[in-house]
C-alpha cells in the first residue's frame, strides 16, 4: 500500500470525504458541515492511495491544555491494514505538548485505542443532539 499523506484542506473534495464517512461507517456527514468542522480543526490528517481518499482524522486543540481527536475514518477496503493506527499516531504526534489528549471513539473500539495509551475516563460527559440515538448506539447510558 503506497500512501500519500497531506495535512491541508485546500484541495479536498468534500463530497469524497462525505462518502468516506458514509461507508466507513461513521454516519451521514454533510459535505458543507465537514468543511466547517475540518476548517476549525487545528490538526488534520488525510491519506490517499492512487489519488483516492482512503483515510482521515482530525483534532481540535487549544495549543496548550487539550487536544481532542475525533472523526478518524478509514475505507472498509483499508481497515485492518494499519492505516487507522497510522492516522491516530499522526494526530497524537501533532498533539504532543498538550497536557491531555482526549479521543472520542465508536463503542467497542476501546481496545484499539488502548494500544496508544488512551485510558477510559470516569468523568466524561456529553450533551447529544439526539440522545435517543446516542443511547441506542452505546455512547451514553442512563446514569
Automatic annotation (TrEMBL):
N-acetyltransferase domain: residues covered:
7-141
Please state the span of the N-terminal signal peptide per the UniProt entry. Answer: none
Source superkingdom: Bacteria
What are the entry keywords?
Answer: Acyltransferase, Transferase
Q: Name one GO molecular function term.
A: N-acetyltransferase activity
Q: Which Gene3D superfamilies does its entry note?
A: 3.40.630.30
The entry's protein name is: GNAT family N-acetyltransferase
Q: Which organism is it from?
A: Duganella radicis
Q: What is the lineage of its organism?
A: Bacteria, Pseudomonadati, Pseudomonadota, Betaproteobacteria, Burkholderiales
